[in-house]
Amino acid sequence: MEKRRELARSLQSGPGSSNNIIYLRERSITMLKRELILRNPLSIVKTEDKEPLKEGQFGAVLAKAGVGKTAFLVQLALSNLLRDRNVLHVSLTQPVRKVCLWYEEVFHNISQEYQIKNTTELWETILPHRFIMTFNKNDFSIDRFEERVNDLTEQGIFFPQLVIIDGLDFDEGSRESLTELKILAREMGFPVWFAITVGPDEVLKKGTLPTNVEPISDLFEILIGLKASKKEINILLLKGEPSKDEENVYLDPSTLLIKDRK
Amino acid sequence: MKKDPKKVRNIGISAHIDAGKTTLTERILYYTNRIHAIHDVKGKDGVGATMDFMELEKERGITITSAATYCEWNDHEINIIDTPGHVDFTIEVERALRVLDGGILVLCSVGGVQSQSITVDRQMARYNVPCIAFVNKCDRSGANPMKVVEQLREKLKHNAVAMQIPIGLENDFQGVVDLLKMKAIYFEGKQGEKVRIDEIPEELREEAEAKREELIDAASMFSDELMEAALEGEVTEELLIDAIRTGTLKRELTPVFMGSAYKNKGVQPLLDAITRYLPHPGEVENVALDLEKDEEKVVLESDPEKPLVSLAFKLEEGRYGQLTYIRVYQGTLRKGDFIVNSRTGKKVKVGRVVRMHANQMEDIEEIPAGYIGALFGIDCASGDTFTSPGIRYSMTSMHVPEPVISLAIVPEDNKSQQNMSKALSRFSKEDPTFRVKVDHETGDTIISGMGELHLEVYIERMRREYNAIVHTGAPQVAYRETITQKADFNYTHKKQTGGAGQYGRVAGYMEPFDGEFEFVNKIVGGAIPSEFISSVEKGFRSAMEKGQLLGFPVTGIRVVINDGQAHSVDSSDTAFQAAARGAFKEGFQKAKPAILEPIMKVAVETPSEFQGAVMGSLNQRRGMILGAQDEGDTCVIEAEVPLSEMFGYSTDLRSLTQGKAQFTMEFSCYRQVPQNISEELIKKAQEKKKKAA
Question: What CATH homologous superfamily does B405-475 map to?
Fold first, then answer.
């Protein structure tokens, strides 16, 4: 009886008492972290290492308004943040608070899906790796952006390793500023991901590019389209080398979370 | 007192500090004949604006206490609550919003939507208060009211629509074009009291027509009739007013008015708007909790004949004793009636009933449903509900934040000591975010509140109103202690030295928990007799009041007890409480304890050229910058900074930005203190303990 009690006690005791015990809480957080990294939206792209884009390279997610571009990019950002990579999220349409909310919402949805509580700690470890910058669309220029990023790097406040730009208009006149940005990105050492809204009449399909993207497509290494169908949002690789997982991932239209058919 | 609730408006005026709320209120009172002379906030005549009646407020040019006052306009009775603009006093704003039916969001036409406006707007949204906006200071250089309308849409996500356009701006500001009547309005006479209606100046006609179209478009979303009329080109004033009102009441449309209160322009049309677009008490759903039916929700009816339900929302020490501001939601509160305080169950007789006009008052016989008034000689706390005998309703509890900063105060002499006690008891009754306690170790009186300025103001008030001179210690941050890993405890409390012995053993484990505290009893087979389980819980709770690292309360712990032992003679409530305290101490030390500190959400608004410098200053203060919002010439930097690092920030910020930046700060969460700082804090606490010993 006493032996059994002792055994029970040792099983209930904290870490350090036995190296063989795996604590559920710790395991679930590690699992969540791994899951989030694996759930990288870019699993549809074939890459040699974990980063499909190198310094100065561009990627974009294309969709009609309201299909889930921002949610997609936020998941992309989260998978980078969890690998301790610094993400600078630039929004030209939403205030800082709203962008924060996107991150909170997506993170919350994912942790709910995995029924994991006590995620505060994990959340707090990723926050210092994120920086949100917002501009009025009309006031945004590459010079201004460079000035702001310099403010951060010169004082050692934040060094972006990935930049996300949401809300930039793409038209014929974009080439010049995008080229300028490409040079800046190369100099500063980060790739850039964009959200591009396509016209309401555009039909996204493999082999063709929307009219506003076609003339500047050479500037992008990866182009991903989001297309809403009845039950799910399909993720189409419009430019870039596909991986074997290409057909397996999609967005759940209710949560806008990336799902794997496997 | 007239008794048509449909003609009553309970409104609040909320805004960023310095946007001109007090001046606007002053003008409203002047045009509604409640006062007969106009004084400015920082008046040269030494009188000061009527609503800023506390001496301190006059001196600082800010409004601290929200005095209630009433006036009449177009046969409507308007109760106005002047609310403070500084974030340290937001409990006052929150309380005012709880009792209001509608609000005026005052914005500065130069500064536009500032960080504090965002806080105030969030508060209005929390209490679902419909509002109209007033863009003030159109006479100031750099005024751009249309930009402010745009900011209301972009930053606050309001469906804001201009109801007027300005005639001239800055020095040349003459009046406004009313887009409803399509007439120009000028304000003449010495104090702008003569309103002259004229034709729209030719050069503004085109703009006015375009803006009216926008107005009709926005309003027609709330009325099919208006939409049809608009298609046929036959929009009437009534149709438009009805549609705007519907949108405003749903909080889906924000009509924007403009003017310059200081230059006496644009106030009268705003008064018209209050009566037209803001709701009367009957249009607002107010809910009480029935304490007899397990806090079941009860919708109150704005009917003066029903049983009384009223809320004491503010207390003030007046010349004739305690003055209790009260809002009646249902029934009528009459002089001589007996009413019951739902919290204490005490029955009291209503003595004097008054209607307040800043610090002057008018005796009245009764306060019917929907009205705001004040009572004398009622002993209660702020937030108490008073009802007719026979019902036990309580108004929904107000959101009261926990204080984040403390200060030790020492009275200068005996006389000050006595006065200080009186003042502290009054302040803590008036303001739930202001707390007082005595540190048993040092014997110091500790006051706690929501920020440095919050406490400073109370210390000043003690000196001025109560003649209590107190010396203050350094501000003390309200730290918390917690554990970071699971740990076992197995503690036996045994005492057998003469008299009755004491015996109790408590075993189990503690682990980190997302809430405050959870106690789980997993004892089987009566290892601890059930009558002592509550003693064990009590023991744990008492041990958590003071952590072992710094002596601050412990939080975020789940305690699970799964074993123990009792003695048939020596076990008692006291013994098990002591055993639990010992068990806690044992477990806490093994569970890798840590210190938590309050983190403040800081928003700094600065001209863009100082953005880098401001970010640097926040970074130096261990701040985590969440983001930077670029808005052309200015930008807003949002960061989370430990409170302990924010002392003296306003001075630093001023010198860093030539006084051009400002910041607001509010409590966000508790977060673990970095290791090096934690060690330093523990060292200091130990030194202090040694000294005290």
Answer: Elongation Factor G (Translational Gtpase), domain 3 (3.30.70.870)
- Which residue on chain A is closest to B560 by alpha carbon? A12
With an 8 Å Cβ cutoff, are B632 and A157 in contact?
A: no
ipTM value for the complex: 0.72
Which residue of A96, A150, A166 to mutate against B (max B Cβ within 10 Å)?
A: A96
Q: For A126-136, b where at least 16 C-beta lie within 10 A, e where not — what string?
A: beebbbbbbbe
pLDDT one-digit tens code per residue, B105-159: 888 888 877 766 776 777 777 778 899 999 988 888 888 889 889 888 887 788 8
Q: What is the DSSP letter of A44?
A: G
Q: What is the pLDDT of residues B291-327, one digit of tens each?
A: 777 777 888 888 888 899 998 887 776 666 778 888 9
- The answer to whether residue A123 sits within a structural domain is yes
- A132 and B628 within 8 Å at the Cβ level: the answer is yes
- CA dihedral for B421, B427, B432, B435, sign (positive or negative): negative
- Tell me if A148 and B628 make a contact (CB, 8 A cut-off): yes
Look up the domain containing A129 and give its range: 53-260
Q: In chain A, what residues touch B638 (CB-CB under 8 Å)?
A: 96-97
**Which regions of B484-623 does DSSP assign to beta strands (E)?**
487-495, 502-512, 517-521, 557-565, 593-607
Within an 8 Å CB–CB cutoff, is residue B486 touching chain A? yes
For the domain made up of B286-395, the CATH class stated in words is mainly beta
CB contact A135 to B (< 8 Å): yes
Task: Report yes or no on A62 lying in a domain.
Answer: yes
User: Whole-prediction pTM value?
Assistant: 0.59
